[in-house]
Amino acid sequence: MVTTSRLHVPRTPARPGEMPDFSYLQLSPAGAVARPEASAPARDIGALSLELVRVLDDDHVAKGPWHPHLDPEELQVGLRHMLLTRLYDERMQRTQRAGKVSFYIRSLGEEAVSVAQCMALRPGDMLFPSYRNQGVHIARGMPLVDLMCQLLSNTRDMCKGRQLPVMYHSVAGNIFSISGNLATQFPQAVGWAMAAAIKGQDHLAASWIGEGSSAEADFHHALLFASVYQAPVILNVVNNQWAISTFQGYAGGEQRSFAARGPGYGIAGIRVDGNDFLAVYAVTRWAAERARTGAGPTLIELVTYRVGAHSTSDDPTRYRAKDDHRHWPLGDPIERLKRHLIALGEWSDERHRLLTEELEAEIAASWKEAVAYGTLNEGPRLDSGLMFEDVFKEMPPHLERQRAAMRQAAASAATAARAAAASAAGASNPAKD
Amino acid sequence: MSDASGEFVFKLPDLGEGTVEAEIIQWYVNVGDSIVEDQAMVEVMTDKASVEVPAPVGGKVLATTGAPGDKVAVGSPLVVIRLAGDTAQAGAGSRPGAAATPNAAAAPTAAATPNAAAEAGVATSFNGGTRVKTSPANRRRAREAGIELHSLVGTGPRGRILQGDIAAASERLGAVTGSAGAPGTAGRAGTTLPAAATLPSGGASEPSSVTEIKVIGLRRVIAERMSEAKRNIPHFAYVEEVDVTELEALRQHLNGKRRAGGAVLTYLPIVIAALVRTLRLHPGCNCRYDASRGVLLRHTAVHVGVATQTPDGLKVPVLHDAQALTVWGIETRVRELAERARSNRATREELSGSTITVTSLGKLGGIASTPVINAPEVAIVGLNRAEERPVVRGGAIIVRRIMNLSSSFDHRFVDGYDAAAMIQTLKEFLERPATIFIPEDNRE
Amino acid sequence: MAQMTMVQALNSAMDVMLGRDPAVILMGEDIGYFGGVFRATEGLQRKYGEHRVLDTPIAEGAIVGTAIGMGVNGLRPVAEIQFADYIYPGFDQIASELARLRYRTAGDFFAPVTIRTPCGGGIRGGQTHSQSPEGIFTHVCGIKVVMPSNPFDAKGLLITAIEDDDPVIFFEPKRLYNGPFDGDPGKAAIPWSTHPKGEVPEGHYTVPFGKADIVRAGEALTIVTYGTMVFVAMRAAASLGVDAEIIDLRSLVPLDVDTVCASVKKTGRCVVAHEATRFSGFGAEILSIVQEECFWDLEAPIQRVAGWDTPYPHAFEWEYFPGPERVATAIRAVLERT
Asked: Do A184 and C210 touch (CB under 8 A)?
């Protein structure tokens, strides 16, 4: 009996060899989407979750009610942060390929998401990023050396050698620790925000996950609790269209926008052009005001494109059309802000070139400093005994014993290695045993 | 099995490993005693081990067979017991009690005997012997008391050794030596002179007396084996002197270089190493004779018996596969074996399987001796005293360090020429010790 | 001092801590207005308000996840999982996040969360209300696991748990909420009001982690146990008239190895008893440690009494529950003459 399956399988627009096709994107013209009050009830503003908030049009002119009217200086700061993020990413990617770092994840094409959102928040707001939000560390001024030492797992590693590269954190910068498990930070951010509310503070929490991760139960948990307790939290779904090789259709994006899940839980949902610095800033500012004034949480879907691979362990040419990002209708965030500033007379290609040089030099100097603290293969190394610390606040006796056993085994191995090297080097002496 | 009148005739059970008879050492019960099941009735000695035989049932002892020193065949009646009405087992935690204070002439419970005895009916493989079943705590008790677990017959289920079995053995040890359970001194129990007996303390005015010492136990076994060896084997002796000046220099040099706490080399390990090389060229001296089949077994591996004087008497622990060990390995292992032999911890495997024996009394070694071959081997090499002597070299008298080798051979299988050739080869190795350590030339 | 049931003792612990430390908050399903399905949080929302005693949605993963976020923001959350059988949706947040946060941030971030949850059978609750999953959590590095067997320990341990900066899973044997239970369902229930361990100080006190309690000293054998099985073991030993030393571990991680091993070295005979299923249960860990540390003192093989390796059946409660008969069998076996 021949049967034909009736199961629907989401369609991926452009596989290798095919013409990139982004016609599935629901776009709105720049400036076309209305801007309600930050305190507007969620049930009245559902349309925001299906439209696309844009400020910069295709000619890099800012328009519409979401225009944040930022000072050129502030935009230049934003441009600098984004450019530094990109250059840092490029350099670190190269070090991974050169074998000096074991693993790296770039945020190429998504710099505005982290930088603009971070700049729209206050230093006291707690950030719960994913592993592709390194821009928040840059925007909050975290020293590059610190980030690099974490990548190198060296003697100055903030994680003392325990984490994979790019899993940064900062207490001073109010940036929470990055987990390898997806979406776990979402309900944690909501809890943090609930605590802030309980304490009567006006700090808020912001968290980021990819659209692929929004499939996890923790996404639901976060929205539910955020809604039930009206937690002062901004929940961001960065829809960069891809989760490794899996197109956003498999996370539900084929049927409905991710922002639209917000109104389903009774919270505000906004969909924004993630490559438009001004729009991202504006929408985040709106959500922050909403949270701080007690009007509730916001789910923001940032529509962007993952230009690079998922990580250094991934090769996207195997599942999507090569150079498809050139066809991305919403452009490149750095390019667009640069063009906008130039159009305002507040920037130039020359200044951009100079800035690039300056930042590259800064990165190079930081790298030189960082490797002095050790690399994977050379230089000072962390004491392996550290692996037994911080499991609990106080080290329990069984871990002390295990640490001693580890040191013993390492010592024996070293002695055996020396003996093997010695006997390989010289003729065997029968008188010796 | 019991008969209709309620009497149980207990026959000497097979005590393991093909024992055919055992010698009675001492009785714990007397005729007329009431006994309970599992209570120790009598101690008997097989070729190798001393064993307590427990009562299979409770009741009253009607008759016993044999006195200490008598030999009883396996399967022959030993005790007649009138069955009690109640044959319930002793409750948890209680032990089979010894009915009588152990006799001062008790034989050792340890298993250590000359390896010839160990071979009687026993498989001599490396992993030979069955595994002893007992709890970890009992293993520790036995170890601390210096009791060889293999020497005990367990009275627990499926032959498991119970705490009571060890306690009883330990008690006897303690009663004889006056110090129960001290490792290393447990061997004291094997002396042929009973502790209770006193010797004349000397002095001309002392009246003379005669002390009767029963030849039983370990001493009896040694006596039998020695007689047998001499009776069956036509010994001939060959004595040769060896210039060990260079050997001594090498020994001093190596000992000077050793790490603190490292083993100190005596001659013996180097002699054994040389013997290994020698026997490769003279395999006819590395044999065991199987009289029952009339077959001479020529071994390629060299298992060296090392005659060792212990408080119990002479024992010969075996350095198995000497050909696989370095000089240091031999030194360490010989030292370990001697220790274990002296403290009664040597296992069955460690006391059997030798293909040649070496005997040395060191400074007490005399200038020549006639060692008795350790049957069923065909040769034994004895080391006499090493000392400075004047010798003639190149027409001049100089002083060299000389040690004699006094060896005995089985003339049925080793001709004079072969014996002499073998000793000459050994001598050559020992006089030029470097040659011991130079690998063979395979082209020959 | 007052006579309290275990439920009242737990309530008292939370009351004391809510009063003492403004950072403490409670959260869980039905715990607020209703006071919890077992009444453990009765009256606390009335006393401390809805902002400190929170009713939550039915989402164990979210309860744990948000508790972590609160802990990072300086609160000291005490989250209730209504039955240990329902803890699994929260397992990822517990094992992947809560247990590792301090470690992966080198101590920069930590979440002092206590998760309370009723466990164990003997209540005809079937497979979704009777499980004892403590063995799954003892295997996760970075969390502490405790299980009291009486009101005095329950209150003291819960206060210790709340004050501890490390995450704690606090298992409450629900069969013991109202009185000790020795495994005989036919007997009339005994209340805590007549039991010495039902006498509980009303104020603040702690019972330390990592310290086992010798509930009965003895010389003949050692019984290592926790939870409801403490009383089952006592009954079994009494019925045989054996001089058993009975150890209530009460703290599984950290484990009081010294007390257990000193006892086994003394008696040479050991029985391990727990309600949880046998294969790969926590008892296997105790047994392993006893074997490693006390081998040369063991007179007999270590015996283990545990739940059968099946889901917890409803109709066969008393054949499933490891009652005093099964413990007695183990005691007899370990006392065999060796």
From this structure: no
